[in-house]
Structure formats: structure tokens, C-alpha cells
Design a protein that fits this description.
single chain, 123 residues, alpha+beta, Aspartate Aminotransferase, domain 1, six-stranded antiparallel β-sheet, 4 helices, 6 strands, 37% helix, globular
């Protein structure tokens, strides 16, 4: 899967934007200042780390052992809520479902008031 496809898909999410808070890598995708995806686009380290619920994260780690792992960069207390996916030969449709879930998880973390404020930015 091409890096540009992943970037375009992440940025296509409602009010999502790209940012580089840690330098040129990882490329972070955020919604309202909260990260939902971190892309590592180097060929030697081609992976993405995605926000998730603990249950959802565990399910994908069981389905794709050694390809989907707990967020490698996170402290142990946060690891169940992040999955790192090694992207070589990973199914595109599954990855896009995981990105959707990451975005939705961040969206649902906001109060209804904040969700409404984000939605009103369209007007």
C-alpha cells in the first residue's frame, strides 16, 4: 500500500489534519488536537500506530499476531489503547477499518458540547 493512499485516507476524515509535533517523523493525524494516527513512512520502518479501544485493539492483535502489536512507543498503561501495524503486505481494507475506528475513538472521547463545536466549524 502506498504512503500517499494512507495519508489521503487519514486527511479525508472530517476535520482531520496532518501535523508534525515530534519532527518529520512520525506524521501525525489529529482531530481537535488529539492524535488518532501516527505514520512512520520510511521503508526500513514502515508502520502506523492507531488509537483504539482496549477490546478492539486486542481483537486485531489476536487476528494478526506479529503484524499488529501494542503501541510500541507508549508507556505500558497506554499500550492497550494503541496498536502499531507493520504495513508490509497488510490488507488495505482492514487498515482503513482500523483508521476509521481510531478516528471514531478520538471523536467519541470528546464531550457532546465539543463534538457540536467541531461540527459547527462547517457553518
Amino acid at each position: 500500500m502506498q504512503i500517499t493512499e494512507i495519508k489521503e485516507y487519514c486527511i479525508s476524515k472530517h476535520k482531520a489534519y496532518e501535523e508534525f509535533p515530534f519532527g518529520s517523523i512520525p506524521v501525525c493525524y489529529k482531530l481537535n488536537n488529539k492524535i488518532f494516527a501516527q505514520l512512520y513512512p520510511k521503508a526500513c520502518d514502515y508502520k502506523i500506530t492507531l488509537k483504539c479501544t482496549a477490546e478492539y485493539g486486542q481483537m486485531y492483535r489476536m487476528m494478526y499476531p506479529d503484524i499488529v502489536v501494542r503501541g510500541y512507543h507508549c508507556p505500558p498503561i497506554q499500550q492497550p489503547y494503541w496498536n502499531t501495524v507493520f504495513l508490509t503486505d497488510f490488507p488495505k481494507d482492514v487498515l482503513f477499518d482500523m483508521i476509521d475506528h481510531a478516528y471514531d475513538t478520538v471523536w467519541k472521547s470528546f464531550s457532546r458540547k465539543v463534538q457540536m463545536q467541531i461540527a459547527e466549524l462547517d457553518s
